[in-house]
Specification:
By secondary structure, the chain is an all-alpha fold. It has helices at residues 2-16, 20-42, 48-64, 76-100, 118-142, 155-158, 164-168, 174-185, 191-210, 214-231, 237-257, 262-269, 278-300, 312-317, 320-323, 346-374, 382-395, 406-422; strands spanning 112-115, 426-429. It is 67% helix and 2% strand. It has a two-stranded antiparallel ribbon. The protein starts with a helix and ends with a strand.
């Protein structure tokens, strides 16, 4: 922690004097060091605090590089909030570790499962059929499939029917369930069922492609990868890097399918170096600009929303927002109207300011610790899927307000239902 504190203070001072490159590099180095410290202690590639350290602090480091003209000097309050967002998480996690133990002492203590794997197979088929059916219904009612529509840049964002689209995108959970199914069958059982599960997985990955949803595709693949990592005793970090490399072409293809040409995107990103390749500038903006959006909020917010923003999942999933539109009618403070991705702490500040950021950070740290403790005595294989979801939100902490996003809680709810349906059909071993 001392290394992080020194790097953060130095980064702040350097940024104040306009030395953005060194400022950013220091935070990137601190992010790598923090992750390796947790990996060294726990030998867990997807340790929840380690992931949050690497991607939250690392994302901040990228933002400090100031490679786009959209990025400006952050206010002192922004720097303070970003610091509290990390320190609250780290401190409460560390305190709980020292008081109650690590909650995790290596893959050897994690459980394996035997018994009837057919309930998981049934969930794979059920979710895929439900998702595909809802997708077909949306395509028929709306009259188009985004992948096959040309010249309409925002067709993908308009492809949804209220209430139905949540079930359409529930397919992102299927690849992870397939990972669990393969693990549980352990070479036993019908080969026909295995082939059927793989076909269902292919269909579940095809749906986000047809929707031209880069995020849903990446989410599904990473979630499956994280589920696999949590189940295995050994996993080489290079495999994860290879996965990212494999995903890049699909990401670029779906970008082209959105009818967004390079000139259009470069016009939005406003990179200082105009010759920067789009495959670098786009990921950079999608990470770095989120911190600048947070800075826009800090500088521009007129009044706090006192809990209304973070209750968005309740207003949405209950349908109340359609009866009372003002419940979710809050302006967004961003660098550019096309760039609406935010950090995980955006709504916490919107609701309660700096206190909201710190309290939310503490709650996240406590939740992360409790989940890791729970993994020591797993009685249901679907718990690995829950862990993988939370781990992915830690990895993507720079991207959006996950825990005030209705989709997040819908995925948690679906996971809970699946866990309930599977719970009485599995035998714990190990």
């Amino acid at each position: 922690m001392a290394v992080y504190l020194i790097c953060y203070l130095a980064s702040y001072i350097l940024a104040r004097f306009g030395h953005y490159l060194i400022s950013g590099v220091l935070l990137l180095a601190a992010a790598g060091w923090l992750y390796m410290e947790d990996y060294r202690k726990y030998k867990n590639l997807i340790h929840l605090r380690g992931l949050f350290s690497l991607f939250w602090v690392g994302g901040e480091g990228l933002a400090c590089l100031k490679l786009s003209n959209l990025q400006t000097d952050w206010s002192n309050m922004t720097w303070f909030c970003l610091f509290l967002a990390y320190i609250g998480f780290w401190m409460v996690f560390e305190i709980l570790v020292r008081v109650y133990g690590s909650g995790y002492d290596g893959y050897g203590r994690w459980r394996s499962f035997s018994g009837d794997s057919k309930p998981v197979f049934a969930m794979i088929c059920g979710l895929t059929v439900l998702s595909l059916g809802c997708f077909i219904a949306e395509a028929v009612i709306l009259g188009y499939v985004p992948l096959f529509l040309r010249g309409v840049p925002h067709a993908y964002s308009e492809f949804h029917l209220t209430g139905i689209h949540y079930f359409t995108v529930s397919c992102v959970l299927v690849p992870s369930l397939t990972v669990l199914y393969v693990h549980m069958r352990n070479g036993r059982g019908s080969e026909k069922l295995l082939i059927a599960a793989l076909v269902m997985t292919a269909i579940s990955l095809l749906i986000p492609i047809l929707c031209v949803s880069r995020f849903q595709l990446v989410f599904a693949v990473l979630l499956a990868a994280f589920t696999y990592i949590s189940l295995q005793k050994l996993f080489h970090p290079g495999w994860l890097a290879g996965l990212f490399v494999v995903m890049i072409p699909f990401y670029l293809i779906l970008t082209v399918a959105r009818s967004h040409n390079i000139e259009y995107l470069n016009g939005i990103f406003e990179m200082k170096k105009a010759s920067m390749p789009i495959f670098i500038s786009q990921p950079y903006i999608y990470i770095a600009n989120n911190y600048d959006n947070f800075d826009c909020l800090v500088k521009g917010l007129v009044k706090h929303s006192w809990g209304m923003k973070m209750l968005a999942p309740f207003w949405t999933l209950t349908g109340l927002k359609f009866l009372v539109p003002t419940l979710t009618a809050f302006p967004y403070y961003v660098t550019k109207e096309e760039l609406t991705t935010l950090t995980m702490f955006y709504d916490a500040y919107y609701d309660f300011g700096v206190i909201g950021v710190f309290v939310f950070s503490v709650l996240l740290g406590a939740a992360a610790y409790l989940l890791m403790r729970m993994m020591r005595q797993v009685q249901n294989p679907i718990t690995y899927l829950l862990y993988a979801q939370f781990a992915l939100y830690m990895l993507l902490s720079f991207f959006t307000t996950w825990f005030s996003n209705p989709s997040t809680w819908f995925y948690f709810a679906v996971t809970a239902v699946v866990a309930f349906l599977v719970s009485h059909k599995v035998i714990v071993s190990g």
